Each structure stands twice: as C-alpha cells, then as structure tokens.
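S., here's the first fold you wanted:
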Amino acid sequence: MLRREGYEGRITMLDEETDAPYDRTVLSKSFAPDSAPKAALRPAGFYAEHNINIIRGKVAALDVSSRRVRLADGATHAYDALLLATGAEPVRLDIPGHELPHVHVLRSLADHRAIVAGAAQAKKAVVLGASFIGLEVAAALRGLGLEVHVVAPDEVPLAKVLGPELGAMVHRRHQEKGIHFHLPQTATSIEAEAVVLKNGERLPADLVVVGIGVRPRLALAEAAGLTMDKGVLVNEFLQTSSPGIYAAGDIARWPDAHTGASIRVEHWVVAQRQGQTAARNMLGHQEQFDAVPFFWSKHYNVSVRYVGHAEKWDELTTHGPLAERQGNVAFRQNDKTLAVASVQRDVDNLKAEVALEANDEAALAKLLHPSGSLH
C-alpha cells in the first residue's frame, strides 16, 4: 500500500521466518504434499520489483527514543515510521509428552511442513482443541484418509463464538465425515503411540496436532514501553502511544467505531485492512480505521462467514434452516446487532457488513427477519 500510494522511499521488512511472506489461512486447509507452494502471498520477484528489502532476523529490541530497531545479531535499522505486526504464537501444552516429535502446533509454514511429513506416515491422528484451526486441521487430515479424533473441553465446538445451534451444525458436519469427538474432555499426557484423556481413555495416535489457541506476541512492544491493554493499544488511526509507531493485526487493540468498545481481533482480513490503513496514515492521511471485522471458515463444503464482533451477547436470532446448513445468526447485546454469521448465504453476509458499517438496525432487521423484527 505504501508503494501504491506513491511512496518512493526505503521500505524494510524485518522477518525472523525464513520463508517469504505467505498466506497463513491456507495452512490449515490441506496437508497434501504439494500444498505448501500455494501459500506464497506474492509471486517470485514481487518484493525486488517494488524495492522492498526483506531482512531475515529476530528483532531483539526497539529503541523508541532514537527510532532504531536492533536485531539479535546486533545490526540496527533506523526508521521514520514503524509498523509493529508481530502477530501471535500458538499456546503450547504443558503436559507430559508435549515435546514428543509427533506432536505439532500450526502457525508457520515450517509447522505446516512438519505436519505434512507426519501425516504422510500416520494412520491415526488426535487433534487437541476444537477451535476453527483445530477443526480445519481435523478435516484436512481426514481428507487424507487418516482416522481423526478431536479432544476439547467444550460441550459444543465453537459455541462460545458461533452460539450453540451453529456450533452444533458444524459439529454434526464433521461427525458425518467420520471425525470422532471426545467432549467435554482434555488430555492429561501424550505417549509415543497414544493420547491419554482425563477420563482414562487412551486414544491411539501417531500424529498429534495441538490447536488450543494463540497469544499475541507483545514482548517487543512491552519492553519498548508502549501503552498496553491485553494487546498494543492504538488510537483510531492505529498509532501507538509512541509517535511514528503503528500496530496492526493480532497485537493491536483499537477503539471500534461500531460497538464503542476497545477490541482486538485475530483474523486475516482485519490484519490486511489494518496494514493498508496504517500505510496510508504513515504517509499523513489521518484515516480512521472503522472497518467491520470479518472472517470465514470452511468445513468441507460448508462455509461460515462472520462479520462484526461479539465477544458476548444476550440474544441470538436465527433465520433459516441451520440444520440444513443454510441461514443467518444475529448476535445482539442490549438490542443492538453486534455481528452476523452466515452459512451458505454469502450475499446476505455482505449485506449485513454494509448494514453494520452504517449502524443500520432497520436494514439488519429486514435482512435477517422478513417480518422486519429481530425479536
């Protein structure tokens, strides 16, 4: 976006991963041997063509007063404007056996390659966690012909995010495809050939994938003295408490223009849009970030699209036969629609996004309930 807006100065990307920038969303969709190349975010030569210098190395410190970034190897880089986009890292298990070689997390392309290699030799897999990532991993492994078991502490997968009815629909779809669920249940240890559950059951496994959530990578910002609030606190322009430093993506907590709350969202589209807004603001545009959050998740041939942000709600309104894998769910708090999830109704979800952007409850009511009422 900096280049698109006409900026001709130096752009440096500091990245500790050895792979070129890539699309993380595809990593959980397939573990076929040829799936990794599809993750490349840009074609070969793109960064050189646009004079974007990528430097591989871990950032050790951020010196706000002198506007310099120091790498672990001692090299330093000066900046006029800086974007922090350090993302998140997987939460790791702390149970006996969590360090065994057949136990994996999924965040990076290196993690993906390790799972591809493990899946090629495996017959029985256990996925710990029924998050979006966990269920997408389970579906991808099942697609390779593995026997797959999912272990999670939830009564209904995804109910905390999607509500019980939509969560149950996703649950049934995975069961229909042959996924075995162990709910509500947790693992107490991992052995070379099995996962041991709290109820004493042993699940044979030669591949284990842990998908129990992520945590934002905040250490660099904290050490630099930036203002924090369970994330890096930014204003409506995505600027941190330090002039010239912006934050975007999983680490950024910003004032949401639609709910009035300070929110942090761990989704790909939000990170993309925030990166674009931050770029324009680095160039002095003073553009407010007011996009409505959005994400999608695909479970075999069933697509769930979610727009808005509802960490909690006091009312769920459903329109459409969710049992038949169609419909919309509105998440409401204090008579205000905070978010809409749609199943196989992509156009409805786009219309809901427009209505949420305009804070248009009447349009949402007409969309989500033909009678004109959300109650």
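And the second, which I think is the more interesting of the pair:
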Amino acid sequence: MPSGAKTAAEAPLWRRLWLLFEARLFPVPSGPALFNQYRDEDPEFDLPDAARMRRENLKNYLKCYRESPKALLVGEAAGPWGCRFSGIPFTSESQLVEGALPFRGKRTSRQGPPNKERSGSVLWGSLLPAFPRFFLWNAVPLHPHEKRRPLTIRTPGAREVRAFCPLLKELHDVLGPHQVVAIGRKAQTALGLVGVPCVYVRHPAQAGARDFLEGMKKIFF
C-alpha cells in the first residue's frame, strides 16, 4: 500500500457510506414498478443529468457525518415528492434549494416549483435541532410506484423489502448507531429480517404526525 493511503475501513464515515452505495445501490436497474432515482431518468419528469445531481445531493448529505450518529431512522421507501427527486430520504427539493437544512442540493424535477413532501416537513420541522445525531434511510431506497403511473406511491412488496436487506444490514454495520428506529411497519419488518433490534414509531404520513412526533421526542429530547 502506498505511504499515506487509507483502507476503506480507515476512510471517513461519509466515504465508506458512499462506497457502499456505489457498489450496492447506484447500479441497480429500475423495473416496471420500481424506479432507481440514482441511476435513471424519466425525460417527462426529470431534468437532464438528474440522476447524477441526485447522487451529488446524497453526497452532500453524507458529508455532514463525521462520526457515527446516535440513531438510524429507517422509513419505508422513497416517495414521489421527496427522495424520488431529492435523492435524500424524508427530504424534498424545496428544502434543499431554500437552504432550510444544514446541507444544500439541486432540484432535479422538470415541472413546476420544487417539490414538497409533507412527511419531510414534519420530520425536519421537529428533528432539525438534533441533526446530525440521526441518519435517515429507507428499507427500500428506490421509488415503488404503480405500473405505468410513475409518480404514484405504493407499499413495497415483501420481495422488494428482502432484496434490499443486505444493503440495510451493511449500512447499519458501517454507521454503528446506538439506537435504531423503524418509522412504519415495513421498516420494522425489514430490520427484523436482518436481526437489528429497533424501536417502532408510527410513520408521519396518513394522520400519523402526532404519534410520530411523540415517539421522536422520547428519543431525542
């Protein structure tokens, strides 16, 4: 090894995460009902070079982590108004471009104003003071949608959840969090499949905001 060179294990935390995603996430092809926003683009909805911009957005987020977070927060899947276009779980384009968060990013959607996501607004509105003591991820990091309806959202199937369990386990091992929180039942199932103990908190979507906020307060405040 050349003098001064570092092994992957000795690299900064954000770099180890990036190498994991380069190997396990970015190359995954999209399917008829599952879209990889880090690899692919839909010219009807995405700006040119959108996938690369979403990877850069994710990198900006990762670079906030200089040490292991207190908690890993795992949601269900990338939503059509949040991670599908921002590249960051529970985060919308509008939050990235308006400077509302400690990291910045670019919009990648073609139509209308930058997208907004209610779940992301609820989460960051309550947890921003605790950042970066938590790391956000999804059990299925891609966008599950109905066939031929690319901007819909559907609950990922059991096979899709299992397909990303190895990535979830590796992510947990790299981060080494003190606590893991499942945001929703699908996340709880995924974490159970990889043998990671977790605390369950209701997802903030579909009238779950109050229960979600109460659960987060017990963990961080």
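Why I say that: The CA atoms of residues 42 and 159 lie 24 Å apart. The mean pLDDT is 94.

Talk tomorrow,
H.
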